[in-house]
Amino acid sequence: MSLAETKSEKVAGWNRPPVVEPDGEGELLEVAMGPHHPSTHGVFRMDVALDGERVIRLKPVFGYLHRNHEKIAEGASYLASMPYTDRLDYFCSLTNNWAYALAVEKLSGQEVPERAEYIRVILAELTRIQNHASTIGFLLQEMGASGTPLMYAFREREKILDLFESLTGSRMMCNYMRFGGCRVDVSTAWLDATRKVVAGLPGFIDEFEALLTANEILMARCQGVGILKPDLAVNAGISGPMLRGSGVNYDIRKVDHYGIYDRFKFRVPLGDHGDIYDRYMVRVLEMRESIIILDQALRDIPAGPIMDPKAKIRGFRPKPGEAYGRIEAPKGELGFYLISDGGPNPYRYRVRPPSLINLTVLEDMCLGQNVADVVLIFGSVDIVLGEVDR
Amino acid sequence: MDQQLKIELGKQGVFVTTIEELYNWGRRSSVWPMQFGLACCAIEMIATTMARYDMARFGAEVFRPSPRQADLMIVSGTVTKKMAPQVVRLYNQMAEPRYVIAMGACAISGGPFKQGYNVLKGIDRYIPVDVHIPGCPPRPEALLQAFITLQKKIDGQHLTGEDRPRFLDPNAQGEFSVPDQGEHDLEPTSNTGVWPVPITIR
Amino acid sequence: MKSVEEIKAAIESAVPGAAVEVVPNPGPAAQHSLRIAPEHAIDIAQFLRDDPELALDFLSNVTGVDWPDKEIAEKVKVTREVKKMVDGPDGKVEQTVQETVDETRKRVEPGCLEVVFHLYSIAKTHGPLVIRMRTKNRSDQVELPSVTPIWRSAEFQEREVFDLYGIVFTGHPDLRRILMWDEFKDYPMRKDYVEPDDFEYEPTPHDEVLKRAQKHKGREQQTGIRDQERVAE
């Protein structure tokens, strides 16, 4: 689509990206960044039009990892889709499991025992910490800090993955949660190991922050770059740390109280300016709040069953109806929309991917910025292509 | 040369080798992979290069962003039909000698996503693959194992003779055809020069 | 939040002439939804977003659903007049008797494509409100108004619904395929989509794969050419 066409279409009330006029003379340079590009998080393409260094137009192109998750899930039984949810956002398989389990529990009206809820909270918060740490590592990688912050992040991530592996049998694809509970119980030894890892996490974040937060280069590159206004963020359906980085106080853990999040005391960190630095700070502070939740959950975890005794594993057929269940995943609002026709597999299975919808405003944030900042802004959105394309 | 004599000479402080061995030793100790991640397996690939597994021990820590500088393509993840032409094109852009590791079930056969309409059922339909590693995703140790396997393969290559590798054979095919994205599917659905369609039922 | 019936009444008083229908959800989730007519969709959407009491400013999820043509077989009781020999006072007499017979009749319920919106309010922290819209049929009248001007978050999701289901959103600024490539012709998430026959080798074929492999074997026997050779031609 040419520039003239973009301008000619005017829809009333439409919150469209601003039009940036090229100021110099000469032609625009069209660059296709991706699908194989060192700065993209995976197979993602941005068609960028540049006037010198300035971005005049940016169109994201998706679909290079479209793996037909929804179509496959509509042909498989409810439980058979659980391993596929691991592969949506492959950094956070446990929160994906939880979102799907929550939607199916809503659809079939199942209850989850208390101990299972605690295990879910512990695993979800561990997932959040390792996701945010890796995201910051990748953000710094894209800033040019080649390797070092990512090494720190992955060192800590490996410790958390060891916990996942000893509990679920897999480092990344955990496939752990079931409708009405969890697959296996946690042992006291596992809880002790987790306490030990969690006790070491504040020290890691302090170290990480000492390296980064007041770093002159990071501040120069991030502050005032990629600003997202709160009203646009709400209108464009942005969720997660990006929304809170723009100063909108909306955390589904606080709003929906899904699971047992109303029992824990934690704060919701909010940004002030909505730039990359605020998104970075929100993630760092969220990691600290996650540690506070983990401390409470590891202290209070009760004994008891981990599966709803009425839960049916074989021949699971929910009554006809539909349900939308959502959780606060590390990337944002992860929702599952299911329609049941009474059969063994869902009639409609839809994933509400936070990564895809958070990219809606990528163009707005990048227009008028330098091309080197596009890479940073893109990194600060925190996407995983498995979830964008499904 | 006689192995025994070689060992004896080695004891005397005389190092004897062949050009072939020296050449292959040099090649296998500095295989530079391409910085190219497709899906979930890419994260395990990154984890392999990080401090705990440390792929640098094998001389492969330098991930090159450009295919022109890379020796090894690690196809790490699901290749979709939308991405397949780009993967083949990247492979064509790599300079010989070049090697391919198909990492994970998806890259080998489509894996769990095999039933998908947009999923390519194995990258070996279009480009020759040297090492396959199963797993979903394979652990970093598995990737290291694949890497060691590849090193052994490089070590065993003869520079002359009938079984010499592709890059020393002037008649060998160097460029692989890039599939087109058709109205319903990729066209053609496989490169028969690389992947003859096997017969299933006898 | 108000109940679905109250919201229906509010919409009907705010947007004159709007046809709103409550779709009950029989499942335990009990997230009832409202089906609105596409003609007034933009006005209704604007009302839902700007009404101070509802303030549904956050469009969370846009989904396409395919409802194919359904053939419904139903049993109908039909009364017919049948002549029968009945025992009368003077022997057998022919008499007309009414008899009810079960008859199966088939009728085709026309299918449609549906879009489902999940709305939340960030200002009031309530939700979800589920809104649905249906197209007239599945083949040629598949236009629905786009809500992208009201909620920007619909931009990519509507493109996705267009890509996978073939619903054309009028008023969308950039309606192109998003996940599949541009040359692609089919709508793969529809229930009647036929996958391309990319024959795959499996050492131990079973179920679907076995059926597919057998189909290929049949073709080999008919033509006398093995697949391998034919592709090489």
Automatic annotation (TrEMBL), chain A:
InterPro entries: NADH_Q_OxRdtase_suD, NDH1_su_D/H, NiFe-Hase_large. It is found in: Cell membrane. Residues 147-390 form the NADH-quinone oxidoreductase subunit D domain. It is an enzyme of class 7 (translocase). Transmembrane segments: none annotated. Keywords: Cell membrane, Membrane, NAD, Oxidoreductase, Quinone, Translocase, Transport, Ubiquinone. Signal peptide: none annotated. Pfam families: Complex1_49kDa. Its EC number is 7.1.1.-. One of its GO terms (molecular function) is NAD binding. It catalyses: a quinone + NADH + 5 H(+)(in) = a quinol + NAD(+) + 4 H(+)(out). It is a peripheral membrane protein. NDH-1 is composed of 14 different subunits. Subunits NuoB, C, D, E, F, and G constitute the peripheral sector of the complex. Belongs to the complex I 49 kDa subunit family. NDH-1 shuttles electrons from NADH, via FMN and iron-sulfur (Fe-S) centers, to quinones in the respiratory chain. The immediate electron acceptor for the enzyme in this species is believed to be ubiquinone. Couples the redox reaction to proton translocation (for every two electrons transferred, four hydrogen ions are translocated across the cytoplasmic membrane), and thus conserves the redox energy in a proton gradient. This is NADH-quinone oxidoreductase subunit D. It comes from Candidatus Sulfuritelmatomonas gaucii.
TrEMBL record, chain B:
It comes from the Bacteria. Residues 40-149 form the NADH:ubiquinone oxidoreductase-like 20kDa subunit domain. Keywords: 4Fe-4S, Cell membrane, Iron, Iron-sulfur, Membrane, Metal-binding, NAD, Oxidoreductase, Quinone, Translocase, Transport, Ubiquinone. The keyword Transport applies. Its cofactor is [4Fe-4S] cluster. InterPro entries: NADH_UbQ_OxRdtase-like_20kDa, NADH_UQ_OxRdtase_20Kd_su. One of its GO terms (molecular function) is iron ion binding. [4Fe-4S] cluster binds at residues 40-41, 106, 136. NDH-1 shuttles electrons from NADH, via FMN and iron-sulfur (Fe-S) centers, to quinones in the respiratory chain. The immediate electron acceptor for the enzyme in this species is believed to be ubiquinone. Couples the redox reaction to proton translocation (for every two electrons transferred, four hydrogen ions are translocated across the cytoplasmic membrane), and thus conserves the redox energy in a proton gradient. NDH-1 is composed of 14 different subunits. Subunits NuoB, C, D, E, F, and G constitute the peripheral sector of the complex. Belongs to the complex I 20 kDa subunit family. HAMAP family: NDH1_NuoB. This is NADH-quinone oxidoreductase subunit B. It comes from Candidatus Sulfuritelmatomonas gaucii.
UniProtKB/TrEMBL annotation, chain C:
Keywords: Cell membrane, Membrane, NAD, Quinone, Translocase, Transport, Ubiquinone. It is a peripheral membrane protein. It catalyses: a quinone + NADH + 5 H(+)(in) = a quinol + NAD(+) + 4 H(+)(out). Residues 35-194 form the NADH:ubiquinone oxidoreductase 30kDa subunit domain. Its main location: membrane. NDH-1 is composed of 14 different subunits. Subunits NuoB, C, D, E, F, and G constitute the peripheral sector of the complex. This is NADH-quinone oxidoreductase subunit C. It comes from Candidatus Sulfuritelmatomonas gaucii.
